Amino acid sequence: MSSDAELIGRSLRGDTDAFVEVISRHETALGNYLARRVGRQAAEDVLGDVWVAAYESRANYDLSYPEARPWLYGVALNRLRRHWRSAPAEEPASDLTGVASDWDPWPAVDARVDTQALLSRALARLKPEEREVLGLVAWEDLTVAEAGRVLDIPAGTARRLLHQARKALREAPEVVALLQVPTT
Amino acid sequence: MDEMDLMKNLRDVPSPGPEAYDRARTALQAAMGEPVATVVRPKRWFSWPKVGVAAVGAAAVAAAVVMGTSGGSVPAGPSGAVPQAVEAPLVKLASAVKAAGTQPGDASVIVNTKFGLDNKPDLYYTLYTDKGEQFTGDSAKTLVDAVAKGHAEPATPYDGKVMAAARLAANGDVDKARIAMITASGNALGIGLSPAEADKAWAAAQGETAEMFRKIGKPVPAPKPRPTGKDLENLINNHLWSSAQHALFANAADAEVRAGVLKLYATIPDMIVGKTNVDGQAVLTLTAPPAILGGGADVLVINADNGLPIREEITSAESSQRWVVNYKAFRVTLADVAAGKI
After folding, report:
1. What is the pTM (predicted TM-score) of this model?
2. Distance between A123 CA and the closest CA of chain B, angstroms
3. ipTM of this complex prediction, to 2 decimal places
4. Which residue of A has its CA nearest to B147?
């Protein structure tokens, strides 16, 4: 089977089917990546832009990397930034409204009512780049080096950010409480 | 079980629908100048086929992690009544803050220096524009870089809701604003709902919690009855305290937001407001009632003249761990920050 890099190389020589094959391999993962960040509705809106942006920028692809998924995540992240900038300010995302959930930032109040939300709040306080590396590693199954590729930062920096993110999470009162929930 | 396991258990989200993939392929083929052909759909449409309805809410919350929020609903009801517990100092200060107005500029910056368990300072800059965009950095330089490159982050629905609630309070309707702030992150408590609807909302939240426990491999606790009476009031005030604080710590230099938060704090019964001096400036200390924090402690220190936050000291109830955060908030223009003037 041809590598993604080979297919992208062929697409640069005019074989558009080759690029469609790259998309076929990664579209579900990319769709989920987008949905995790902006919700399903916005992900659906952005998906086509991501493919077009990837196609238009494929000449910049470093063909020494056989696997294109981290690059595609990087393209998607750039599109998301544009999407965020152009979104109406302070407008709730339609797909997230009406969700009956709750959170509570103080672990002792009622961690068992607000488990997911506690973690959500702790994550929301991470620095954006820490959260991004953490999400890429924990949710997208990328290596730290691949996460660095997505964000266009050195692997060492990505490793440091992941370390900081994990440390900040471990020390967050909400996560301390979650990890202390008795197992018996 | 560690923090990564917790993270991984929140990865499942509702995926884009099949039609969205079709539309995206069509857009791609148009960009490639190709006639639109029949598309081959990916094999899996959903990344969460095995989870039940209860987990959908959890997944939506997980998705909202990065966005920073979840949805919420519904005002009005007995718990929405506005007690005027500590009206005098805070409402007075809120009026003065609103009268003084927001300083010139088109954005507010807040710098927080957090001292964690290792007591090492951790700097964090947040710039919140008057249009509702956010830029962040861990130093003045990284903030300047983010602004110069236009790397804005989304104003999340939760941010939008807490800011709107604070502004509503500043502009008069404290009763409605209080409910809006309490329910900004959701309404599992059923504030303002009919008893049947409230029970349903509570059951849904309990279901999400049970699903979470199953996912992280812990025994699922027995469902708890919906809190009532004093327990309910404590939870309500906990949410009010926390969400108002979120607004303050994102956008304190906006006088309207700050005044609204002060007015909302004034509705929390049993909050202790003290006067003292810190580093030569007159300050108010706002001590949240321990009952609303489950026995934990949170003391917010604000400037007595302008209401800007100065310091926060948090002690968790169960582990007695202590966090201290220092705050510095001021107004800027985006152009100045982009040019490195901060």
Report:
1. 0.56
2. 6
3. 0.76
4. A85
